[in-house]
């Protein structure tokens, strides 16, 4: 028979799945011999059974009876007893802590009779009635679903009538009257009197805790934190101890270290003569934990000993909830405490220094996400600010810039040297150029998975979305909030972490960790303003060094220009995994491509390309010089041709207008030819059309030009005594034959350049694996490729059949909402599907070519969870944006320990 209930003394901390976090840790404290009021845990199995069957399994009731009797025997009081009544707390506790999401009921077991026995037994009338009114209040709200406000109002009214400020000042008579009022409230709200049978109270409270798993806010919280819905919560039933028995009693919370700075010491709050949530609820001003020392030295010392034991045992920062009853300490909860990103790094290294954990373990205590947070620029704490509105912080960072409303102004102002914040009602893929030009993006609509948010996170740029108070008039170019109106060119500041929007420029500073990454440890230490900051810099430095030592994955970067490459190299990148050459054909050079496309004869085409050759060569010289000695993967031109041509509609209108006005001349002639070409190359579905290797095979001159430019750049740099290491990469390959054709052509060109320069040029020629067919036939393709690079962006698009540029708000939001996806597969690799293709690709490739070099380029290369996957499937490197390099180094190290 399934067992649903465990005494605290039967469990331990490894049983969080079954007992929930609170239950498992209570059990652990019992094992450690710490003073925990006796109790038991009803398992998450029982909760799941309740949720599927809609009722508590009868076995649970039977087991609860037996375990309740154990408690009664242990402490010699019984539930509902007329002399010494046992009181209980009924506490929720899921596997992952969901602060404030579910419910707890205290003082269960009190009724119109036992309240008198309690008063007599404790010799404290006031205490008894205070406990009873708390029970009715908590039970009413949590179990009976009565609006909590109603109770608070009654309490406030009572305090006002008595002329007192805090509830400890209410005397027994006043509390008695309050209880009467509460009971009436229960009866009018629910139609039945407050349940008087203690055991019935217990059963109802247990069921209510189960039910609270599915409250709206609990569901919402789980979605946000990616906690599975099917886990369920455990219920802990425990004998009450009382912090509200006067001045020698009290309740508090504490941390074994400061959770924001990480320092070891005495951190916590204590509230005398109080119960339960009083401390956090801010009802009265709490005392610092250190003050407890003067009030009750014995209890204080006992608590300090318990804190130290817990920290030694868990070997980590713990947070603790405790109660003191007439000078006796009781431990009510502990867990490994949440902490800020900075504290995570500091605590981890401090624990190493105290020789409580090893460096490997320390690596497990920090995450790439935390490091990422420490890299974002910050608003200067001391700066003055005027808040305009608050939206959702969707991608952290602090951005200050001129307001712009469209791509054109964003680009124009950026070129003029200004920082801009792109403001849109919502964004679409068309806004990408504006986003690229901007330092931040602000929208009035859309959530954390909206296009703006997803794209901004990918680019590591600051974003605030869904600021619904903003009235954005794109035509008039104004933002209005109440009385305030801002126009184009006005400066705003947005905080991508808090979602706050300020008028004017709030001062922004590089984070100390960013300074460390960009300028090195000495510079960062020198610039640090205080010891805490210096500690942080040191901690991050030590962790990254250790990660570098441990990791097997190399970390490269995606960079298209020498400038980007330099930045990434400074941050520890060990090569370039993806240089997108098409960026070099945009802007002013677009015309050259136009000429290539428009060429009427092979000769004309060749002339056009010959003009491009020196430009391309110069690009590669610049890049390879910066990356001297490090592998540099250059991808041959990838996107569809139309991206280099004018927009079809725009051009049609221009030509039509010119013709209507009877204009002529070379400009018009050119437009007409261009229009024909644009029509000609127009495709319904260009991303699945003539691009990548297909383009290379259709216009062989394009690839040839690039390969020659690479080869000549190598020759030039070697001439200067440098060591360029380019790798030529062919995009969008789906078959062995495609790769074969390109490779033959490339070899020929390399041989020519080798011959004329007298140098050996056997540059590696590999391909991207970004189509399912390539992954599935990797064993064949590997005959023609010196390396594979998984293009997981396109591979995700082509595996799911999602268009990355169009997934956008609507349907992705719906998919996240109804649980088809828990996160965008463009953000974290879909290990089950896309990941399986990566695995097959690696295996297939290496079956043909042992030790084939494999890597990944694409957003996933910088995503912590995906990096662990790439480590597991045995890739040689990941490549990510320069911004994510430190994060990838850390996570690759973590994957290896
Ligand atoms: P949460 O998960 O919201 O922290 P808890 O179950 O920890 O809820 O209960 C909240 C508070 O109620 C505890 O911090 C403690 O002060 C009080 N409490 C819970 N159980 C007991 C108990 N057995 N005796 C006295 N106080 C208790
Ligand atoms: Mg708690
Ligand atoms: Mg691609």
TrEMBL record:
EC number(s) from the headed UniProt entry: 2.7.9.1
Name all PEP-utilising enzyme mobile domain ranges: 419-499
Q: Which transformation does this protein catalyse, written as a reaction?
A: pyruvate + phosphate + ATP = phosphoenolpyruvate + AMP + diphosphate + H(+)
Specify the Pyruvate phosphate dikinase AMP/ATP-binding domain's residue ranges.
62-285, 301-344
Give the keywords, sorted. ATP-binding, Kinase, Magnesium, Metal-binding, Nucleotide-binding, Pyruvate, Transferase
Q: Which Gene3D superfamilies match?
A: 1.20.80.30, ATP-grasp fold, A domain, ATP-grasp fold, B domain, Phosphoenolpyruvate-binding domains, Phosphohistidine domain, Pyruvate Phosphate Dikinase, domain 2
Q: What is this protein called?
A: Pyruvate, phosphate dikinase
């Amino acid at each position: 028979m399934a067992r649903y209930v465990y005494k605290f003394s039967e469990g331990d901390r490894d049983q969080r799945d079954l007992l929930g976090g609170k239950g498992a840790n209570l059990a652990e404290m019992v094992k450690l011999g710490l003073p925990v009021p006796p109790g038991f845990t009803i398992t998450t199995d029982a909760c799941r059974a309740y949720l599927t069957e809609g009722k508590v399994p009868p076995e649970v009731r039977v087991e609860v009876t037996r375990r309740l009797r154990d408690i009664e025997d242990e402490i010699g009081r019984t539930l509902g007893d007329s002399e010494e009544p046992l009181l209980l707390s009924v506490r929720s506790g899921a596997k992952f802590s969901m602060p404030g999401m579910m419910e707890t009921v205290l003082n269960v077991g009190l009724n119109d009779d036992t309240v008198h026995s309690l008063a007599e037994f404790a010799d404290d009338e006031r205490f008894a009635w205070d406990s009873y009114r708390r029970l009715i209040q908590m039970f009413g709200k949590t179990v009976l679903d009565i609006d909590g406000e109603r109770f608070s109002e009654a309490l406030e009214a009572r305090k006002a009538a008595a002329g007192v400020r805090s509830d400890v000042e209410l005397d027994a008579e006043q509390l008695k009257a309050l209880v009467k009022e509460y009971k009436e409230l229960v009866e009018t709200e629910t139609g039945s009197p407050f349940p008087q049978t203690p055991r019935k109270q217990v059963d109802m409270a247990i069921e209510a805790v189960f039910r609270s798993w599915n409250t709206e806010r609990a569901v919402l919280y789980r979605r946000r934190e990616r906690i599975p819905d099917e886990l369920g919560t455990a219920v802990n039933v425990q004998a009450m101890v009382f912090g509200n028995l006067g001045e020698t009693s009290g309740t508090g919370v504490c941390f074994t270290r400061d959770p924001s700075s990480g320092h070891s010491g005495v951190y916590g709050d204590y509230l005398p003569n109080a119960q339960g949530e009083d401390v956090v609820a801010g009802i009265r001003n709490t005392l610092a934990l250190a003050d407890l020392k003067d009030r009750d030295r014995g209890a204080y010392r006992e608590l300090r000993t318990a804190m130290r034991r817990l920290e030694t045992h868990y070997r980590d920062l713990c947070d603790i909830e405790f109660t003191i009853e007439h000078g006796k300490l009781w431990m009510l909860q502990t867990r490994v405490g949440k902490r800020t990103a900075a504290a995570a790094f500091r605590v981890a290294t401090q624990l190493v220094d105290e020789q409580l954990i090893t460096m490997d373990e320390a690596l497990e205590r920090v995450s790439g996400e935390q490091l990422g947070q420490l890299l974002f620029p910050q608003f200067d704490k001391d700066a003055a600010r005027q808040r305009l509105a608050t939206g959702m912080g969707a991608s952290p960072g602090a951005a200050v810039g001129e307001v712009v409303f469209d791509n054109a102004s964003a680009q124009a102002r950026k070129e003029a040297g200004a920082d801009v914040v792109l403001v849109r009602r919502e964004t679409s893929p068309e806004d990408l150029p504006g986003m690229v030009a901007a330092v931040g993006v602000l929208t009035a609509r859309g959530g954390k998975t909206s296009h703006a948010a997803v794209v901004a996170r990918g680019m590591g740029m600051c974003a605030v979305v869904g600021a619904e108070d903003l009235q954005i008039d794109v035509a008039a170019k104004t933002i209005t909030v109440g009385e305030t109106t801002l126009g184009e060119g006005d400066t705003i500041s947005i905080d991508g972490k808090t979602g706050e929007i300020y008028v004017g420029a709030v001062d922004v500073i590089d984070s100390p960790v960013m300074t460390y990454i960009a300028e090195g440890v000495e510079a960062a230490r020198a610039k640090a303003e205080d010891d805490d900051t210096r500690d942080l810099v040191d901690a991050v430095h030590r962790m990254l060094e250790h990660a570098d030592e441990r990791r097997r994955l190399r970390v490269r970067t995606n960079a298209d220009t020498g400038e980007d490459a330099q930045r990434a190299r400074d941050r520890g990148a060990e090569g370039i995994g993806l240089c997108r050459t098409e960026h070099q054909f945009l802007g002013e050079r677009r015309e050259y491509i136009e000429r290539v496309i428009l060429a009427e004869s092979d000769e004309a085409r060749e002339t056009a390309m010959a003009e491009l050759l020196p430009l391309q060569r110069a690009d590669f010289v610049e890049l390879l010089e910066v990356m001297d000695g490090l592998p540099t993967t250059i991808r041959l031109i990838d996107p569809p041709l139309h991206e280099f041509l004018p927009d079809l509609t725009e051009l049609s209108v221009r030509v039509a207008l010119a013709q209507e006005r009877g204009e002529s001349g070379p400009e018009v002639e050119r437009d007409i030819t261009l229009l024909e070409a644009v029509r000609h190359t127009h495709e319904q579905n260009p991303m699945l059309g003539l691009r990548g290797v297909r383009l290379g095979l259709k216009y062989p001159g394009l690839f040839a030009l690039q390969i020659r430019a690479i080869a000549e750049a190598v020759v030039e740099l070697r001439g200067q005594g440098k060591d360029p290491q380019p790798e030529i990469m062919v995009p969008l390959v789906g078959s062995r034959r495609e790769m074969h054709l390109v490779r033959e052509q490339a070899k020929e060109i390399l041989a020519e350049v080798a011959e004329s320069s007298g140098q050996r040029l056997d540059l590696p020629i590999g391909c991207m694996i970004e189509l399912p067919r390539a992954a599935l036939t990797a064993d064949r393709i590997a005959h023609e490729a010196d390396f594979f690079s998984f293009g997981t962006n396109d591979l995700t698009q082509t595996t799911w059949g999602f268009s990355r540029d169009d997934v956008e708000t609507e349907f992705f939001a719906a998919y996240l909402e109804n649980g088809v996806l828990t996160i965008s597969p463009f953000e974290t690799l879909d290990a089950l599907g896309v990941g399986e293709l990566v695995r097959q690709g690696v295996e297939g490739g290496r079956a043909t070519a042992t030790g084939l070099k494999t890597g990944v380029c694409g957003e996933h290369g910088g995503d912590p969870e995906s990096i662990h996957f790439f480590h597991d499937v045995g890739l040689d490197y990941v490549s990510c944006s320069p911004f994510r390099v430190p994060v990838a180094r850390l996570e690759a190290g973590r994957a290896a320990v």
